[in-house]
Amino acid sequence: MHPHPSPAAPTSPPTPTAQSWWLATLAAEEAPQLFAIAHEYPETQEGWVAAYGMAFQDRAEVSSTDGDFRTCSASPESALTTFTRLARDEKGVKLHLIWLTPPHGSRPRDNAQP
Q: Alpha-carbon torsion 72, 76, 80, 85, what sign?
């Protein structure tokens, strides 16, 4: 008869190093701000989120929620302009730039309305 192996001693998660703390801080400080572009139809009180984006220091990358359109713009505001042009044939639509995360080191932005 073989003896049963002893159960493994529980292991604790590794202790973070100074380097990993520094990298986590760097990643948090340089993370892009998240935003959405939404369509509002005031006459029917309906709306939907058309796209989500990431605002980096030098550009904004945006992807439509239905997955058929991606763009890289100079800023979230210029991405909003692009989506406004794409929606120009929709009667009564109003587009909004909605900030999902605040700028680093400041209070949350006011959600802009064009």
A: negative
